[in-house]
Design goal:
One of its GO terms (cellular component) is plasma membrane. With 466 residues, the chain is of the alpha/beta class. It has 2 domains: 152 residues, Alpha-Beta Horseshoe (Leucine-rich repeat, LRR (right-handed beta-alpha superhelix)); 195 residues, Ribonuclease Inhibitor (Leucine-rich repeat, LRR (right-handed beta-alpha superhelix), Alpha-Beta Horseshoe), CATH 3.80.10. It is 23% helix and 14% strand. The chain has 10 helices and 15 strands. The protein has a 7-stranded mixed β-sheet with strand order 1-2-3-5-7-8-9, with no helix packed on it. Strands 10-11-12-13-14-15 form a 6-stranded mixed β-sheet, covered by helices on one side. Strands 4-6 form a two-stranded parallel ribbon.
Amino acid sequence: MFWEKIYFIVLVLLFVRLSTEFSVQVPADHGTCENWTLAAEANAGNCTKTGKRLHCFGGMANLHLMNIQKIKKIEQVILCGWPNTTFEPHSVLKHFPKIRILRIEHSNLTHIFNDFPDANYLESINISWTQFGYTRPTLFKRLHNLKYLDLRWNKLDHMEGPLILPRSFEQILLAGNPWNCTRNLKWLLSEKGAHVADRENLTCADYKYTGRHLLTVMQFKLNLKTECQNHPDLRNCSCTMHYIRRSDDGKSLTPIYAVNCSHLNLFNFPSYLPQNTSIFHATHNQIAEVRSLRDNSVYRQVYDVYLDNNRVQSIDVLEAGFWLNNFRVLSLKGNKLTRLPVYALDSALERNAHAARLYLSLNPWICDCKFTMKFRELLMKYHTIIRDSHNITCKYIEGDENFMTEVLTLERNDVCKLPKESKILPLDLLNGVLASLIVLILGKLAYDYYHYRKSGRLPWIVTKLP
């Protein structure tokens, strides 16, 4: 019994030693191939074999000259300066049935053709400092013993989704890549992203979120998606993050959102918007009034509102209100506006230092003497804000010569015309009356003369004269 215990202990110690010797070691650095061009083998693209390790520089030109049986026992392959822009896993790994570690570093590799084939012993893959810019979920699917994956310092800007990896997988490293945070990388927040050991260090490199922590950006996006999906007024709207603003003290970040509810046949503004929404699109709907901008507090911080091609007939309700005095962009093209509160709008634009763009074209503007000249003065005064002022024209009124005329080109005489003079003057009317009386008198005289000659009796009025 005693020797059996000793034998068992020896076996355990031997197993531990072997496990330690052949366990996958996380590379201490990523500079194994940093100066590979200085190696003598680099001139011909040859490989050097040391024990069970094969170190190649600029290719594998001399691989066919090596002993096949020894090559089959290779467990670690390091490819420095891979000469091609593409890599076909099967054509390389077929030479190394016992391979456990594969490293491809400092090369112009951009694409991996086909998924990695079955490799029962392959536990660690390091593809770093290359131009590798695209990976797919199934790329490493058939590597059932893969435990470690290092994809740092490449050109990956997005991933279609989490990689399909074996249950025994331990960790993946992704830092140093130019991540495009405008793409969907929210899976990194979930359990599927738990294997990404350095996900806290991933940063964005796109035009919109450069320098921001990727997880922070994705968390803001996830919060917005949840908030929009949970409110009935926004379920059919599109909610996006416009940008991220740093606080004045630099200690916190605030996401700025944009909500798009266009082409939804809406008759009213949504009653709710996510906090920090500053841009609202509701074009091509049936909205007829803008009272919500005045009465609903959720629109108080919505500075850009786009309401093109709706049925808005008036913005008088915004007069002297907070929103009109603080807006940045208001687009009302293609609505039913015929008049504006000119003086109120003038006063608001004077006080509003944030006003940048106001669009008013494609509305049926009435061009009359009372409104048009004041409107024209407003367009001229704020032409840098009213960007489409040259496209603002008069609506069609039968007999009006100003139809489709630019309001800016109208003069007072064009809209303030005096009534046309009557063709019949008072003197002409008097002359007509007098002429009629003369004709009547002459007619009466001729009748009396005829009657006297025929009957010999004088006219009745003559007999009454004294």
